[in-house]
């Protein structure tokens, strides 16, 4: 008997999210192999991966407000993949930093992190993402229980805030983009707070 395909629409949409999330990574890798990252290629790669990480983290934080706004709970099915892409791109970001910016010199990497505040903040964001990624599997969610899981995953807001602060601290003159990220984060937090205060039927989860 041929295998039955039983992918429901939600699983299909999630697959689209997973496939699409990988595309900017492939584009970056492709441009890198073609030598199309410009004169300062390492900085360009750090720029792209840093922004990608932030954008995916923000997307993952957007899913609950979207559920509240639309009443469709399907958004939540995309949240884990989006958050994990945020983590993935920041790991690539770190790998590019250690591998190319610091030429795999771990002592020099640690020295830089030790002496620069913006790197300490970025490192804190990355370290904080580890427990969130580790507890993102179905079995870990079950083991923790919904309540504990939710409490722990509130740290996602802190991760996003540290990511924005890292960005804000490193830009030299034009702070408009990090400030725009900060403004969006404040709106997301505001919606979350309003949801808790109102806690009507729609806003309880
Ligand atoms: C160990 C962790 C990290 C290290 C060592 C690191 C290092 C760096 C470095 C060296 C730059 C370029 C600085 C420059 O242009 O002078 C940078 C930029 C950036 N990083 Fe990180 N980072 C880390 C974690 C993160 C995380 C977790 C995020 C996001 C959540 C992030 C987002 C960004 C962004 C948005 C930029 C700015 C890109 C640009 O416009 O040039 N970084 N990071």
Q: What count of structural domains?
A: 1
Helix content: over 70%
Number of helices: 9
Overall 3D shape: globular
Tell how many strands the DSSP assignment holds: 0
In angstroms, what separates the terminal alpha carbons? 42 Å
Largest sheet: none
**Parts with pLDDT < 50 across at least 5 consecutive residues:** none
Strand content: under 5%
What is the mean predicted local confidence, pLDDT? 94
* Distinct ligands: protoporphyrin IX containing FE
Structural class of the secondary structure composition? mainly alpha
Radius of gyration: 19 Å
The H/E string reads HHHHHHHHH
What are the main properties of this structure?
205 residues; mainly alpha; 9 helices; 0% strand; globular; binds protoporphyrin IX containing FE
Please characterize this protein's 3D structure.
This protein has 205 residues and is mainly alpha-helical. The chain has one domain (10-198). The chain has helices at residues 9-33, 41-70, 76-101, 106-115, 117-134, 138-144, 146-153, 155-170, 176-198.
In short:
About 80% of the residues lie in helices and about 0% in strands.
């Amino acid at each position: 008997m041929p295998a039955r395909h039983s992918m429901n629409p939600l699983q299909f949409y999630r697959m689209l999210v997973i496939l699409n999330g990988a595309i900017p990574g492939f584009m970056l890798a492709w441009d890198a192999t073609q030598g199309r990252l410009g004169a300062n290629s390492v900085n360009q790669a750090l720029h792209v991966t840093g922004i990608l990480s932030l954008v995916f983290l923000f997307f993952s934080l957007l899913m609950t407000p979207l559920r509240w706004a639309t009443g469709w709970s399907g958004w939540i099915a995309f949240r884990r993949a989006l958050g994990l892409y945020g983590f993935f791109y920041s790991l690539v970001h770190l790998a590019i930093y250690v591998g190319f910016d610091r030429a795999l010199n771990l002592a020099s990497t640690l020295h830089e992190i030790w002496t620069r505040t913006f790197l300490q903040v970025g490192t804190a964001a990355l370290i904080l993402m580890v427990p969130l990624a580790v507890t993102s599997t179905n079995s870990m969610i079950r083991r923790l229980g919904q309540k504990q899981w939710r409490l722990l995953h509130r740290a996602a807001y802190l991760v996003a805030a540290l990511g924005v602060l890292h960005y804000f601290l490193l830009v030299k003159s034009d702070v408009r983009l990090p400030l725009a990220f900060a403004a969006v984060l404040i709106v997301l937090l505001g919606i979350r707070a309003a949801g808790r205060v109102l806690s009507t039927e729609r806003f309880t989860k």
